[in-house]
Amino acid sequence: MQNFTWHNPTALIFGKDTVKELAPRLKADGVKGVLLVFGGKGTFKSGAYSQVTEMLSKEGIAFSEVNDVKPNPLVGKVRDGVARVRAGGIDAIMPIGGGSAFDTAKAIAAGSCYSGDVWDFYAGKAKITKALPIYGVLTASASSSEVNCISVISNPETEDKISMSNPCLYPKVSVIDPSFQVTLPEKQTIYGGVDIIAHILERVLDGNEECELIDGQSYALIRTMMRVIPELIENPKDYDARADYALAGAMAHCGFLSVGREPRGDFSSHKMGHSISLLFGAAHGATLSVIMPAWARYLYEDNPVPFARLGEEVFDIFDGSDEEKALEAIEALEDFFRDINAPTTLRELGVKEDDLERLAENAAKLLPYGVLKELEPEDILEIYKLAY
């Protein structure tokens, strides 16, 4: 295990009817005005919007809104939010939603404290030194954005979907009330669950064999997600399953599963998935259920051990050589994705064979990446071909 320092400053408030617990924290911090950042109908349907606005009104805290935040959030919406903050009366940002709302809120929080264009942060032209505080209310678990310092934003003008991270972007407080998620569409539960599983797999499949304690936590989380996703498809209102799902979602990408790893996981599948979302509008989780098995098939023969361990720890595959167990584990993972009606081919996402080179060119813009194998442009194209 490598040396590490891990610090997560986000206060997590978890459970039913916990939005009201934001009130004393906002009051103690002297917050007078907040910018609410959210998507659309789901925010109202979940009941989160009414609880948040009722709490703010009761505390005498003014609020304005940036709404209609889309999945794969766009830099244009971030710029709208920055302009609203600069108009005055806002001293905190409050996302209500899932990863898209939180990612947008983080970008607004940073861009509001910077004189240039917020995209400079994502393009590597500027570094964040300050951001407004973020107090979030989660209504859809997937990205762990509620408990990490990462923001992913798309820029259709440059055909880029880029992540950035900075300690200033940790939410100060995040509320996770699992009951807000019972109204989620089935596809969102499925794709959010795939994203959670993928965040964990990016760690345990990085080839590091010196983090058995952390890997044990990771395998347990994967097993939990593979149990609760089908349960929630069957009964979306199962609060206990929702709670397990939401807590696993927060744990998956909050940084804890990366401790002792150097570097902190292999996120090749995420990078390649971003290009599919950007160019074809596919849901983020849907890109991962397609790309992760293809990436694994491309690499397992030269790196069988991490995939074989996945087979042993998650799928009870113990017979055969490491190579045989690895392939069986990859097939089992892909079968699980099919069983929950997640796509497993690019064709299902509307990608045509003629699009593969364009996809590969876009994904290669973010190189270098890859830990189990540092990918080259030709590797990326071959993985997309396997996924087709």
Q: What does this entry look like structurally?
A:
- With 388 residues, the protein is of the alpha/beta class.
- The chain folds into 2 domains: 11-179, 3-Layer(aba) Sandwich (Rossmann fold); 185-387, Up-down Bundle (Dehydroquinate synthase-like, alpha domain).
- Helix content is 48%, strand content 11%.
- The chain contains 15 helices and 8 strands.
- The protein has helices at 22-28, 41-45, 48-59, 75-86, 99-111, 119-122, 186-204, 212-234, 239-252, 268-280, 284-299, 304-315, 322-339, 356-364, 377-387, and strands at 11-14, 33-38, 62-66, 92-97, 135-138, 150-155, 160-165, 173-176.
- The strands form 2 sheets. Strands 1-8-5-4-2-3 form a 6-stranded parallel β-sheet, sandwiched between helices. A two-stranded antiparallel sheet has the order 6-7.
- Strand 6 and strand 7 (160-165) form a beta hairpin.
- Helix 7 packs parallel to helix 11 (284-299), helix 8 (212-234) runs antiparallel to helix 9 (239-252) and helix 10 packs across helix 14.
- The longest helix has 23 residues, at 212-234.
- The protein starts with 10 loop residues before the first strand and ends with a helix.
